[in-house]
UniProtKB/TrEMBL annotation:
<keyword id="KW-0732">Signal</keyword>
<feature type="signal peptide">
    <location>
        <begin position="1"/>
        <end position="21"/>
    </location>
</feature>
<protein>
    <submittedName>
        <fullName>ABC transporter substrate-binding protein</fullName>
    </submittedName>
</protein>
<feature type="domain" description="SsuA/THI5-like">
    <location>
        <begin position="81"/>
        <end position="275"/>
    </location>
</feature>
<dbReference type="Pfam" id="PF09084">
    <property type="entry name" value="NMT1"/>
</dbReference>
<dbReference type="InterPro" id="IPR015168">
    <property type="entry name" value="SsuA/THI5"/>
</dbReference>
Length: 449
């Protein structure tokens, strides 16, 4: 927002070099000279990297702004602010201190509600990554835990971040299991890192979190999957929100951001290994974990489009937040604004909907992975190879998981992988006549030869 010149000329000249945050201007005698755009992102929520970590490292937004600045005589700067969750981004936006932010579907709704309440309305203008079944959220438990299914959580302590997408998954999953989310478990509202430490210390029985915490903990041997969010079969996604005032005052800058996001999305989709390595370097996360979510067959599909099925899912999220008394209500249709993305994406390619995931093998020293039509083929190819990571889709939900962390079922000549023990057991119980049985990873590898 521009500051009007009301002081004597000498004072105006004295203040000219100063820059205010959040789309702010430094005024000179002839008008604004410097504009700072403040962007909030979540570096370790790697489903947002095309509007955050990866975008920042590629410098595409700065390039777009430099081109704009050369035309209008303004110097544009970007203030990137990194947070662990969406809540502080919303706090900054509704205080008028941040222009653009990225967060998950449930936090987006809170963002919309808080913005309206505090007279700083926001708009959803793009998606970063999504999973049409909900596989981006997972409930995990300790490696040695005796818990085998979500039903076993009754009366247990569960850590989550209240108001997050992972909390929404936990609430819905508990309800489907016949457990009252308010009284059937002891829910602890914790930051993801705090919850991860609590799980390791044994002070909680399970952790419900969003990408990439479950995958990271499983990869490091600090957790095992208890519930695959894709079992809900409800889309989940992360998206980009903008202050309405900023979008109105600087529509071109918003379109620059969205064009840069499109370029980052192209880069991630065409160079998934390089993108994973880049995000890993920036965040300290293992590249193998980043690739689990952001790879060619990853759990997340990256596409900025505001797909109807995602907007419908957002509407289904509202009652969950209302029941938790986190929002009084949200007019989703009024919150969603597809026009800036339409303007920014003119002439660019449209991405197809997510395809069924395939098994994937990443060998050490390779900048490309190999995909396979079946888990058996992957296991055969992995034998004797210098494997960096191997991934297999859940036989029912399609959620990609680490092959050595999956639960395997042998059924005649077929080998099937599952994210959770409960998923594998359900399959075996339904196919007793075929001789289906649970086997460990080593036996699965031997059977594949």
């Amino acid at each position: 927002m521009r500051t009007k010149a009301v002081a004597p000329l000498a004072l105006v000249l004295l203040l000219a070099p100063l820059v205010t945050a959040c789309g702010g201007d430094a005024e000179g005698a002839s008008g604004p000279k410097t504009v700072t755009v403040t962007v909030g992102y979540q570096s370790k929520t790697i489903n947002t990297v095309t509007a955050g970590t990866l975008l920042r490292s590629l410098g595409y937004f700065e390039q777009e702004l430099a081109a704009r600045g050369s035309k209008d005589g303004v110097t544009y700067k970007v203030d990137w602010q990194d947070y662990a969750t969406g809540a502080p981004i919303t706090a900054q936006m509704t205080a008028g201190k941040m222009d653009i932010g990225s967060m998950g579907d449930f936090p987006l709704l809170i963002n919309a509600a808080r913005g309206k309440e505090l007279k700083q309305p926001t708009r959803l203008v793009a998606v970063t990554g999504y999973n049409l079944r909900g596989g981006l959220n997972t409930v995990v438990t300790a490696p040695g835990s005796k818990l085998e299914s979500l039903a076993d959580l009754r009366g247990k302590k569960v850590s989550t971040s209240v108001g997050s997408a992972a909390d929404g998954t936990l609430v819905r999953a508990l309800q489907r299991a016949g457990i009252d989310p308010a009284s059937g478990v002891e829910k602890l509202n914790q930051q993801p890192s705090v919850g991860a430490s609590a799980l390791q210390a044994g002070s909680v029985d399970a952790l419900s979190q969003f990408v990439a915490w479950p995958g990271q903990l499983a990869y490091e041997g600090r957790a095992k999957a208890l519930y695959d969010g894709a079992e809900l079969n409800l889309p989940t996604f992360h998206g980009v929100t903008v202050r309405e005032e900023f979008a109105r005052e600087r529509p071109g800058v918003l379109e620059d951001f969205l064009r840069a996001q499109l370029k980052a999305t192209d880069h991630l989709r065409t160079e998934p290994v390089a993108a994973a390595e880049s995000v890993a370097k920036e965040t300290g996360l293992p590249a193998e974990v980043v690739y689990l979510y952001n790879g060619a067959n990853g759990i997340a599909t990256f596409d900025p489009a505001l797909r109807p099925e995602l907007i419908d899912a957002l509407k289904q999220d509202v009652p969950v937040l209302k029941d938790a008394k986190l929002v009084a209500g949200v007019d989703v249709d009024a919150f969603v604004d597809p026009e800036p993305l339409k303007r920014a994406s003119e002439g660019t390619q449209q991405y197809p909907a997510a395809a069924a995931a395939r098994s994937e093998l990443w060998l050490k020293g390779q900048t490309r992975t190999q995909s396979f039509d079946s888990p058996r083929e992957l296991l055969k190819a992995a034998r004797g190879g210098d494997v960096r990571a191997a991934y297999v889709p859940d036989a029912v939900t399609g959620t990609l998981w680490f092959a050595d962390k999956a639960v395997w079922v042998a059924e005649g000549p077929e080998l099937r992988a599952f994210v959770t023990p409960a998923g594998a057991k359900a399959y075996v119980d339904a196919h007793k006549g075929s001789g289906a049985r649970i086997v460990d990873f080593a036996e699965a590898g031997a059977l594949a030869s």
